[in-house]
Amino acid sequence: MANKAGPSRRAASLDYDGLDKRNWKLIASRWVILILAISCIYANINDIMYYSGIINQYSQIPECGFVKFEIMVVVSGILMLITLTVGGALVLKQQLRQLRAYLTFLFIFSWMHLMIILVLTQRYPLVHEIHSKWIKRESINMYEIMYNCCGVFGPDDYLLLYGKLPSSCFSDSTMESKDLYYTGCLNKNDIESTIVRGEMVTSLIQQIKAPQRSLRDLWKDRIIL
């Protein structure tokens, strides 16, 4: 009897050890998924706040055609946020069947969100960079020279802030009115763009001290040249 009981106990012990290892793997996998979901939720919240700020800044300016794309990004971001929250709940409750269907929706919303951002960056490749630099009072001379534009909306931006124009707003830096660029850099959408551009990596940063004025105020006080 002892000989018969011995192997059965060892087999039961091995089965228990194997089950215990599988449980630990499942628990570890669940926590990894939850951490990733929380990270994605945090990133989505930051994105929604960032794009909402841009919408609020430019929504009343008719020339800003990119605003509609920013709104679409915010809407898709909210859908992603809801989807990720639901996914986290399903992982916690270990609803395997629902998770299979959930992955389909996650893929669809992720793809949609990515495509909208890609369209935005392809049609208006300078929006976020120019916005960020102008708000921080950093130089955009490199963009003006490279893309033949001046200021955010046009030369008025510099005239209202500083009373003069930089040489980068003129063709070949001639400082002659006939060579002035009248197009702003923010709405520049007639340039070739790739997914990764050089100016994203090597940006020229020069601090400019100036009184804080919103871009909306600049637009209202614009000067027609």
TrEMBL record:
GO cellular component: membrane
Keywords: Membrane, Transmembrane, Transmembrane helix
SUPFAM superfamilies xref list: Tetraspanin
Main location per the UniProt record: membrane
Cell compartment(s), UniProt: Membrane
TM region positions: 31-51, 71-92, 99-120
Topology relative to the membrane: Multi-pass membrane protein
Entry-linked InterPro entries: Tetraspanin/Peripherin (IPR018499), Tetraspanin_EC2_sf (IPR008952)
Protein's name according to its UniProt entry: Tetraspanin
Species name: Drosophila virilis
Source organism phylogeny: Eukaryota, Metazoa, Ecdysozoa, Arthropoda, Hexapoda
